[in-house]
Design a protein that fits this description.
Strands 1-9-8-7-5-6 form a six-stranded parallel sheet. It has two domains: 86 residues, Leucine Dehydrogenase, chain A, domain 1 (Rossmann fold), CATH 3.40.50.10860; 125 residues, NAD(P)-binding Rossmann-like Domain (Rossmann fold), CATH 3.40.50.720. With 287 residues, it is α/β, with parallel strands linked by helices. It binds nicotinamide-adenine-dinucleotide. Nicotinamide-adenine-dinucleotide binds next to α9.
Length: 287
Amino acid sequence: MLILDGKAVAQKMKSIIAVRALEFAKQVGRKPGLGVIIVGEDPASHVYVKNKEMACQAVHFHSIRLQLPSSTTKEELLQAIQKMNQNELVDAFLVQMPLPPHLSSEIILDAIDPLKDADGLHPINMGYLWVNRQRVAPCTPWGVIKILDHYQIPIKGQSCVVVGRSQIVGRPMAHLLTMADGTVTLCHSRTPNLREKTRQADIIVVAAGQRHLLGSDDFKKGATIIDVGIHGSGQGKGVTGDVRFSELEGHVAAATPVPGGVGPMTIACLLENTLILAQHNKNIIIN
Ligand code: NAD
Protein backbone atom coordinates (compact mmCIF):
# COMPACT_ATOMS: atom_id res chain seq x y z
CA MET A 1 0.00 0.00 0.00
CA LEU A 2 1.27 3.41 -0.96
CA ILE A 3 1.18 5.79 1.99
CA LEU A 4 0.13 9.22 0.79
CA ASP A 5 2.51 11.34 2.81
CA GLY A 6 0.74 14.66 3.26
CA LYS A 7 3.53 15.97 5.44
CA ALA A 8 6.07 15.56 2.64
CA VAL A 9 3.77 16.99 -0.04
CA ALA A 10 2.93 19.94 2.19
CA GLN A 11 6.63 20.52 2.80
CA LYS A 12 7.22 20.66 -0.94
CA MET A 13 4.39 23.17 -1.34
CA LYS A 14 5.76 25.26 1.51
CA SER A 15 9.24 25.39 -0.04
CA ILE A 16 7.73 26.90 -3.19
CA ILE A 17 5.57 29.31 -1.15
CA ALA A 18 8.63 30.43 0.85
CA VAL A 19 10.53 31.38 -2.30
CA ARG A 20 7.50 33.27 -3.61
CA ALA A 21 7.04 35.03 -0.27
CA LEU A 22 10.60 36.36 -0.44
CA GLU A 23 9.92 37.63 -3.95
CA PHE A 24 6.67 39.23 -2.72
CA ALA A 25 8.61 40.96 0.08
CA LYS A 26 11.14 42.24 -2.46
CA GLN A 27 8.42 43.73 -4.64
CA VAL A 28 6.04 45.03 -1.94
CA GLY A 29 8.50 45.96 0.80
CA ARG A 30 6.99 43.67 3.43
CA LYS A 31 6.23 40.00 4.02
CA PRO A 32 2.82 38.49 3.14
CA GLY A 33 0.60 38.65 6.24
CA LEU A 34 -1.89 36.09 7.57
CA GLY A 35 -4.24 37.19 10.35
CA VAL A 36 -6.09 34.97 12.81
CA ILE A 37 -8.92 35.97 15.12
CA ILE A 38 -9.41 33.55 17.97
CA VAL A 39 -12.31 33.82 20.40
CA GLY A 40 -12.23 32.01 23.74
CA GLU A 41 -9.97 29.39 25.27
CA ASP A 42 -10.70 26.17 23.36
CA PRO A 43 -7.37 24.29 23.80
CA ALA A 44 -7.48 22.52 20.40
CA SER A 45 -8.13 25.85 18.65
CA HIS A 46 -5.11 27.36 20.39
CA VAL A 47 -2.96 24.45 19.17
CA TYR A 48 -4.24 24.95 15.60
CA VAL A 49 -3.53 28.70 15.75
CA LYS A 50 -0.03 28.10 17.09
CA ASN A 51 0.63 25.61 14.26
CA LYS A 52 -0.53 28.17 11.71
CA GLU A 53 1.77 30.82 13.21
CA MET A 54 4.73 28.44 13.09
CA ALA A 55 3.90 27.58 9.48
CA CYS A 56 3.84 31.32 8.66
CA GLN A 57 7.27 31.81 10.16
CA ALA A 58 8.68 28.90 8.14
CA VAL A 59 7.56 30.43 4.81
CA HIS A 60 8.55 34.05 5.56
CA PHE A 61 5.02 35.30 6.25
CA HIS A 62 4.22 37.44 9.23
CA SER A 63 1.24 36.47 11.35
CA ILE A 64 -1.10 38.76 13.23
CA ARG A 65 -3.19 37.34 16.03
CA LEU A 66 -6.24 39.02 17.54
CA GLN A 67 -7.18 37.23 20.73
CA LEU A 68 -10.66 37.87 22.15
CA PRO A 69 -12.33 36.56 25.33
CA SER A 70 -15.17 34.02 25.10
CA SER A 71 -17.55 36.76 26.37
CA THR A 72 -17.00 38.72 23.11
CA THR A 73 -20.28 40.00 21.67
CA LYS A 74 -21.28 39.70 18.01
CA GLU A 75 -20.69 43.48 17.60
CA GLU A 76 -17.20 43.26 19.12
CA LEU A 77 -16.27 40.36 16.86
CA LEU A 78 -17.60 42.19 13.80
CA GLN A 79 -15.46 45.18 14.80
CA ALA A 80 -12.40 42.93 15.07
CA ILE A 81 -13.15 41.58 11.58
CA GLN A 82 -13.39 45.13 10.22
CA LYS A 83 -9.99 45.85 11.78
CA MET A 84 -8.51 42.88 9.91
CA ASN A 85 -10.33 43.88 6.71
CA GLN A 86 -8.73 47.33 6.94
CA ASN A 87 -5.28 46.34 8.21
CA GLU A 88 -2.80 47.03 5.40
CA LEU A 89 -0.41 44.40 6.79
CA VAL A 90 -3.01 41.62 6.62
CA ASP A 91 -3.36 40.09 3.15
CA ALA A 92 -5.76 37.40 4.30
CA PHE A 93 -7.18 36.16 7.59
CA LEU A 94 -9.52 33.69 9.20
CA VAL A 95 -11.69 33.41 12.26
CA GLN A 96 -10.74 30.22 14.07
CA MET A 97 -13.68 27.82 14.49
CA PRO A 98 -15.50 26.70 16.54
CA LEU A 99 -16.86 29.95 17.96
CA PRO A 100 -18.57 30.11 21.36
CA PRO A 101 -22.23 29.08 20.90
CA HIS A 102 -23.64 32.63 21.15
CA LEU A 103 -21.80 33.68 17.95
CA SER A 104 -23.12 32.62 14.53
CA SER A 105 -20.37 31.52 12.19
CA GLU A 106 -22.46 32.51 9.14
CA ILE A 107 -22.75 36.19 10.11
CA ILE A 108 -19.04 36.23 10.93
CA LEU A 109 -18.05 34.61 7.65
CA ASP A 110 -20.17 37.09 5.67
CA ALA A 111 -18.30 40.02 7.30
CA ILE A 112 -14.86 38.91 6.05
CA ASP A 113 -13.72 40.78 2.94
CA PRO A 114 -13.88 38.04 0.23
CA LEU A 115 -10.50 39.29 -1.04
CA LYS A 116 -9.01 38.54 2.38
CA ASP A 117 -10.75 35.18 2.87
CA ALA A 118 -7.83 32.86 3.70
CA ASP A 119 -10.07 29.83 4.28
CA GLY A 120 -11.92 30.25 0.95
CA LEU A 121 -15.24 29.83 2.75
CA HIS A 122 -16.91 33.19 2.05
CA PRO A 123 -20.12 32.66 0.02
CA ILE A 124 -18.68 34.78 -2.82
CA ASN A 125 -15.57 32.63 -3.08
CA MET A 126 -17.71 29.48 -2.82
CA GLY A 127 -19.83 30.90 -5.65
CA TYR A 128 -16.76 31.45 -7.82
CA LEU A 129 -15.72 27.88 -7.10
CA TRP A 130 -19.13 26.61 -8.12
CA VAL A 131 -19.07 28.40 -11.48
CA ASN A 132 -15.59 27.02 -12.10
CA ARG A 133 -13.81 30.35 -11.69
CA GLN A 134 -11.84 29.38 -8.59
CA ARG A 135 -10.10 32.26 -6.78
CA VAL A 136 -9.34 30.50 -3.50
CA ALA A 137 -10.75 27.10 -2.57
CA PRO A 138 -11.57 25.73 0.90
CA CYS A 139 -8.21 24.50 2.21
CA THR A 140 -8.99 20.91 3.20
CA PRO A 141 -10.67 19.67 0.00
CA TRP A 142 -8.15 21.59 -2.09
CA GLY A 143 -5.39 19.85 -0.14
CA VAL A 144 -6.95 16.49 -1.03
CA ILE A 145 -6.91 17.37 -4.74
CA LYS A 146 -3.26 18.43 -4.41
CA ILE A 147 -2.22 15.19 -2.71
CA LEU A 148 -3.95 13.06 -5.39
CA ASP A 149 -2.29 15.19 -8.03
CA HIS A 150 1.15 14.84 -6.42
CA TYR A 151 0.93 11.05 -6.42
CA GLN A 152 -0.53 11.08 -9.95
CA ILE A 153 -3.63 9.22 -8.85
CA PRO A 154 -6.09 9.81 -11.66
CA ILE A 155 -9.51 11.27 -10.86
CA LYS A 156 -10.74 11.48 -14.43
CA GLY A 157 -13.18 8.69 -15.19
CA GLN A 158 -12.91 7.29 -11.66
CA SER A 159 -15.78 6.49 -9.37
CA CYS A 160 -15.46 8.69 -6.26
CA VAL A 161 -17.38 8.58 -3.00
CA VAL A 162 -17.27 11.44 -0.48
CA VAL A 163 -18.54 10.59 2.99
CA GLY A 164 -19.77 13.78 4.69
CA ARG A 165 -21.55 16.82 3.25
CA SER A 166 -20.27 19.69 5.40
CA GLN A 167 -19.84 23.11 3.90
CA ILE A 168 -16.11 23.19 4.66
CA VAL A 169 -15.14 19.69 3.51
CA GLY A 170 -17.67 17.29 1.97
CA ARG A 171 -19.62 19.48 -0.45
CA PRO A 172 -16.68 21.42 -1.92
CA MET A 173 -14.78 18.11 -2.07
CA ALA A 174 -17.52 16.54 -4.18
CA HIS A 175 -17.52 19.60 -6.44
CA LEU A 176 -13.73 19.61 -6.91
CA LEU A 177 -13.71 15.90 -7.75
CA THR A 178 -16.53 16.48 -10.23
CA MET A 179 -14.61 19.32 -11.88
CA ALA A 180 -11.62 16.96 -12.13
CA ASP A 181 -13.85 14.60 -14.18
CA GLY A 182 -14.58 12.09 -11.43
CA THR A 183 -18.05 10.54 -11.15
CA VAL A 184 -19.02 11.47 -7.61
CA THR A 185 -21.46 10.11 -5.06
CA LEU A 186 -21.89 12.32 -2.00
CA CYS A 187 -22.91 10.33 1.08
CA HIS A 188 -23.94 11.53 4.53
CA SER A 189 -25.54 10.41 7.76
CA ARG A 190 -28.91 9.74 6.05
CA THR A 191 -27.42 7.62 3.27
CA PRO A 192 -28.73 4.04 3.53
CA ASN A 193 -26.27 1.19 2.87
CA LEU A 194 -23.14 3.34 2.98
CA ARG A 195 -20.93 0.29 2.52
CA GLU A 196 -22.65 -0.53 -0.78
CA LYS A 197 -21.58 2.90 -2.06
CA THR A 198 -18.03 2.94 -0.69
CA ARG A 199 -17.30 -0.60 -1.92
CA GLN A 200 -17.87 0.30 -5.55
CA ALA A 201 -15.61 3.40 -5.47
CA ASP A 202 -12.06 3.86 -6.77
CA ILE A 203 -11.44 6.91 -4.55
CA ILE A 204 -13.10 7.37 -1.17
CA VAL A 205 -12.75 10.61 0.80
CA VAL A 206 -13.97 10.12 4.36
CA ALA A 207 -14.97 13.27 6.26
CA ALA A 208 -17.68 12.08 8.62
CA GLY A 209 -16.14 13.13 11.92
CA GLN A 210 -16.73 9.59 13.32
CA ARG A 211 -13.65 7.94 14.76
CA HIS A 212 -12.79 4.65 12.98
CA LEU A 213 -16.09 4.60 11.07
CA LEU A 214 -14.77 2.65 8.08
CA GLY A 215 -12.30 -0.22 7.62
CA SER A 216 -11.06 -2.59 4.91
CA ASP A 217 -14.48 -4.32 4.52
CA ASP A 218 -15.89 -1.00 3.35
CA PHE A 219 -13.49 -0.61 0.43
CA LYS A 220 -12.84 -2.59 -2.71
CA LYS A 221 -9.40 -4.02 -3.32
CA GLY A 222 -7.07 -1.49 -4.90
CA ALA A 223 -9.03 1.62 -3.89
CA THR A 224 -7.49 4.93 -2.77
CA ILE A 225 -8.54 6.13 0.68
CA ILE A 226 -8.32 9.72 1.86
CA ASP A 227 -9.04 10.13 5.56
CA VAL A 228 -9.95 13.71 6.50
CA GLY A 229 -11.10 12.90 10.05
CA ILE A 230 -9.13 14.11 13.05
CA HIS A 231 -9.87 12.78 16.52
CA GLY A 232 -7.66 13.54 19.48
CA SER A 233 -5.69 16.41 20.85
CA GLY A 234 -4.50 17.78 17.51
CA GLN A 235 -0.89 17.46 18.71
CA GLY A 236 0.08 14.25 16.93
CA LYS A 237 0.19 11.58 19.65
CA GLY A 238 -3.01 9.54 19.95
CA VAL A 239 -4.62 11.31 17.01
CA THR A 240 -6.68 9.03 14.74
CA GLY A 241 -9.00 9.43 11.80
CA ASP A 242 -12.36 8.24 10.47
CA VAL A 243 -10.72 5.15 8.93
CA ARG A 244 -9.22 2.09 10.67
CA PHE A 245 -5.85 2.60 9.00
CA SER A 246 -4.23 -0.56 10.40
CA GLU A 247 -6.69 -2.75 8.41
CA LEU A 248 -5.81 -1.26 5.03
CA GLU A 249 -2.37 -2.76 4.31
CA GLY A 250 -2.55 -5.46 1.62
CA HIS A 251 -6.08 -4.47 0.63
CA VAL A 252 -6.18 -0.93 -0.74
CA ALA A 253 -3.72 0.64 -3.18
CA ALA A 254 -3.08 3.92 -1.34
CA ALA A 255 -4.16 5.75 1.79
CA THR A 256 -3.46 8.87 3.84
CA PRO A 257 -2.35 8.31 7.44
CA VAL A 258 -3.69 10.31 10.39
CA PRO A 259 -1.75 12.26 11.50
CA GLY A 260 0.48 13.21 8.59
CA GLY A 261 -2.04 13.02 5.75
CA VAL A 262 -4.66 15.66 5.01
CA GLY A 263 -3.92 17.84 8.08
CA PRO A 264 -0.55 19.25 6.89
CA MET A 265 -2.04 19.80 3.42
CA THR A 266 -4.78 21.99 4.91
CA ILE A 267 -2.19 24.34 6.44
CA ALA A 268 -0.11 24.43 3.24
CA CYS A 269 -3.24 25.37 1.26
CA LEU A 270 -4.05 28.10 3.79
CA LEU A 271 -0.62 29.59 3.14
CA GLU A 272 -1.12 29.21 -0.60
CA ASN A 273 -4.51 30.97 -0.43
CA THR A 274 -2.90 33.82 1.53
CA LEU A 275 -0.22 34.27 -1.09
CA ILE A 276 -2.75 34.10 -3.95
CA LEU A 277 -4.84 36.84 -2.31
CA ALA A 278 -1.75 38.92 -1.40
CA GLN A 279 -0.61 38.87 -5.02
CA HIS A 280 -4.11 39.56 -6.32
CA ASN A 281 -4.65 42.49 -3.94
CA LYS A 282 -1.26 44.02 -4.72
CA ASN A 283 -1.73 43.32 -8.41
CA ILE A 284 1.56 41.48 -8.83
CA ILE A 285 2.42 38.20 -10.48
CA ILE A 286 5.14 35.90 -9.10
CA ASN A 287 6.00 32.75 -11.01
P1 NAD B 1 -19.22 17.93 10.18
O1 NAD B 1 -19.60 17.34 11.48
O2 NAD B 1 -19.58 19.33 9.86
O3 NAD B 1 -19.85 17.01 9.02
C1 NAD B 1 -19.80 15.62 9.09
C2 NAD B 1 -20.57 15.03 7.92
O4 NAD B 1 -20.46 13.62 7.97
C3 NAD B 1 -22.04 15.37 7.90
O5 NAD B 1 -22.43 15.76 6.61
C4 NAD B 1 -22.74 14.05 8.26
O6 NAD B 1 -23.95 13.88 7.57
C5 NAD B 1 -21.72 13.02 7.83
N1 NAD B 1 -21.75 11.82 8.67
C6 NAD B 1 -21.67 11.77 10.02
N2 NAD B 1 -21.76 10.48 10.44
C7 NAD B 1 -21.89 9.72 9.32
C8 NAD B 1 -22.04 8.33 9.11
N3 NAD B 1 -22.07 7.46 10.13
N4 NAD B 1 -22.18 7.91 7.84
C9 NAD B 1 -22.15 8.77 6.80
N5 NAD B 1 -22.01 10.11 6.95
C10 NAD B 1 -21.89 10.56 8.20
O7 NAD B 1 -17.67 17.67 10.04
P2 NAD B 1 -16.53 18.38 9.13
O8 NAD B 1 -16.29 19.73 9.64
O9 NAD B 1 -16.78 18.15 7.69
O10 NAD B 1 -15.28 17.47 9.59
C11 NAD B 1 -15.25 16.08 9.38
C12 NAD B 1 -14.02 15.50 10.03
O11 NAD B 1 -12.87 16.06 9.40
C13 NAD B 1 -13.85 15.84 11.51
O12 NAD B 1 -13.20 14.75 12.14
C14 NAD B 1 -12.93 17.04 11.51
O13 NAD B 1 -12.20 17.15 12.70
C15 NAD B 1 -12.04 16.71 10.35
N6 NAD B 1 -11.43 17.85 9.69
C16 NAD B 1 -10.13 17.72 9.37
C17 NAD B 1 -9.49 18.72 8.68
C18 NAD B 1 -8.05 18.51 8.31
O14 NAD B 1 -7.35 19.47 8.07
N7 NAD B 1 -7.60 17.25 8.21
C19 NAD B 1 -10.16 19.88 8.35
C20 NAD B 1 -11.52 19.99 8.65
C21 NAD B 1 -12.14 18.94 9.32
